[in-house]
Amino acid sequence: MPQRPTRGNxxxxxxxxxxxxxxxxxxxxxxxxxxxQIHNGNNGGGNGxxxxxxxxxxxxxxxxxxxxxxxxxxxxxxxxxxxxxAMTLPVANAMPWT
Length: 98
Description:
This protein is an all-alpha fold and 98 residues long. It has helices spanning 20-39, 53-57, 64-69, 74-87, 89-93. This is Reverse transcriptase domain-containing protein.
């Protein structure tokens, strides 16, 4: 976790280095799990969303990561929020679906 600046140090903290290959693999795994939950009607909220959510919503590829991450709950949501904090939301949402 980045350190907070001290009173005498006005320099912003250095962001952590991110292994993009490992990060994309982790995101891919998390999204696959979230999609499986949606497909099985269990997105953690118990509202029974069924298969084909992307098709039903007409979700284009360029926003599928953003859409899928909105379904994260519990540990997946905590994991995603940590990565968003490290890389900023616009960068995280701009990740390619494939």
